[in-house]
Amino acid sequence: MMSRCYLKSAVLAFLYFFIYPVVAQQATFPQKNDYLHLLERAVQERKPMFLVVHQRDEQFVPFKGTVSKKAKDILSTQFVSGIVQVDRDDFNHPLAQTFQMNDPFYLFTDKDGIPLLRHDKAVDGTIELERLIDSVATLAKGETLGKLTAQYRKGMRQQSILTKMLQRYQAFDQYTDQQVLNDYLSQLTIEQLNNFETVTFLLSCGPVYNSKTYLLARTNGKMVDSLYSSLPLPVRKKINNRIIQRTFREALDKKDFSLAQHIGYFTYQTWTSNYLRGAASQDYYPLEYKRLMKDTVAYIQMARRFYNDRFYRIDPDSIARIDFVQDHQIKLSRKGPLLDSAQNAAFKQWIGKGRQYYQGDQARNLNYGAQQILAFAWNSPDALFDAIRWQTKAIGLKPDIAQYHHTLALLLYRVSFYAQAEAEQEKAISLSKLNKGRHKEMQAVLKQIRSRLL
Question: Are 159 and 187 spatial neighbours (Cβ–Cβ below 8 Å)?
Answer without folding.
Answer: yes
